[in-house]
Write a structure and sequence with these properties.
The chain contains eight helices and three strands. By secondary structure, the protein is mostly helical. The chain has a single domain, classed as Arc Repressor Mutant, subunit A. Helix 4 crosses helix 5. The longest helix is centred in the middle third of the chain and has 23 residues. It starts with a helix and ends with a helix. The C terminus is likely disordered.
Amino acid sequence: MVADTEVLELAAQLHTVVSRLAYHLRTPATRLGVTPTRMAALAALAKRPEGLRQGDLATQMGVSAASMTRLVDIMLEASWVVRERDQLDQRAYVLQLSERGRSTLDGVRSESVRELSEDLAELEQGARQALAAAVPVLRELADRRLSDTEPAGPAADPQHPAPAPGPGASPTTMEEAR
């Protein structure tokens, strides 16, 4: 189905505005040295307290095994994750968010929310109400992509859907994972 001109224009406008907003929401993470890729990995692990196989995380994020290995090394070095052998398959590793990883993720999210709330407070009440009304629609649009990012295999858990990777959250080379 080909979208009409009005739908294409709306899509272009939303893409631009959401991308710009996402960029600004990532600023606190960037100041702390948490790249969008690292943030996406931490968020994915936070949704899976039981852990996630390293290969499943790579698949979910759309990165190569080599890129994921480098990313896991970085996260281990930062003490953001713990890595243990999978009890069901000793050849595989399961990653879990560490207490420091949870603290880092929560801190970045809190700072982003604080900054956004300051911006929202400067808007007129009507503009805030319009944004509030748009949230369910935007959530529905975002949720449509979740089923495409669900990992396969025993680590998948339908009660904890995989987060959709954000803009710039899918490195394909080891250099981008840094």
